[in-house]
Structures are given as structure tokens and as C-alpha cells.
Amino acid sequence: MRQTGRKLLTGQAGCNLFFGGLVVIAPFVFSAFQRLDLVQPAPDGSGVSYDGTAWAFLVSSAVTLWAVLGEVWVLMLLTWEFLHGPVAVACIAVLCVVEVLVLWYGQSSIRSVLKILAKAQAARIQAAEDDAKLTEEQKALAPLKLRWNVL
């Protein structure tokens, strides 16, 4: 019996490290697919601006959300392992509510970021067209690029 408990804790510790690593790695996935934007200067005045793609943002956000939900799930398993009776049930019920809130917050914040950045991109393209800074080829390709300053 003791050996089984030790294996269970080792598996949960491994899951904890895995999901913790995903939380750290996910933003770097987005950063790896960013490109230098030579047209738009950085808002902080440094002169260097990077644009990331929408799909990289979505993948990075999904991995982060999955990792957070996985961490809460591991916490539920640990609660079930170490606590017993009504205390365990109450803690797991609270963690279930936390999981629902994390899902709701994740989808609403990801959707909001994409909407705001899509509007900013459209305004940037319109301003560039008004200023005639883009060539005809760049004007034709600009709406298709889906590039946004996210991080």
C-alpha cells in the first residue's frame, strides 16, 4: 500500500512539473514566432517593435490555459489523496468552481485581446493607406497578414 501511494505522489509531482513547465514555455512559443516590424515604432520609444501572429497567440494561450487547468486538477487529486470526508468534498467543490472560472476568464480575455488588436490593426492599416506609406502590393497584402502586437 505504501509503495502505491509513493508512485501516485511521484506521478502527481511529475504532472505538477510538466504543467508548471508549460506555463513557463507557452509565452516563449509566441515570442519565437514574432517578427520585427520596421514600419511601426515601439510604443515605449525604443524604436524596436515586434509583431506576433494570431495563431501563435492562440496556441500559446491554449497551452497556458491547459497548464493552469492541469495544475488545478493535480491539486484536486492531492486533496482527494490527503483529505477525507466533508473537508475533501468541500475543497474539491471549490476547486471545481475555480476551474470553471479559469475557463470563463481564459476564453473571455483571449477573445477580448483578439478583438481589440484586430481593431488596432485595422486602424493602423487605414492610417497607413491614408498616408500612402504602403505600396499597392503591400496594401493588397496588409489585411491578410494577421499581425498584432500582443506581447
Number of domains as seen in the coordinates: 1
Q: Which secondary-structure class do the elements indicate? A: mainly alpha
What is Rg? 22 Å
Strand arrangement across the biggest beta sheet:
1-2-3
> Which consecutive residue ranges, at least 5 long each, have pLDDT under 50?
144-151
Q: What gap, in angstroms, lies between the N and C termini?
A: 49 Å
Strand content: 5-15%
Number of helices: 4
Summarize model confidence as the mean pLDDT.
76
Seen as an oligomer or otherwise, the chain set is: single chain
Shape from CA axes?
elongated
Instruction: Give helix % range.
Output: over 70%
- What is the H-and-E element order? HEEHHHE
Number of strands: 3
What's the story with the biggest beta sheet?
3 strands, antiparallel
Which terms summarize this structure?
151 residues; 3 strands; single chain; mainly alpha; three-stranded antiparallel beta sheet; disordered C terminus
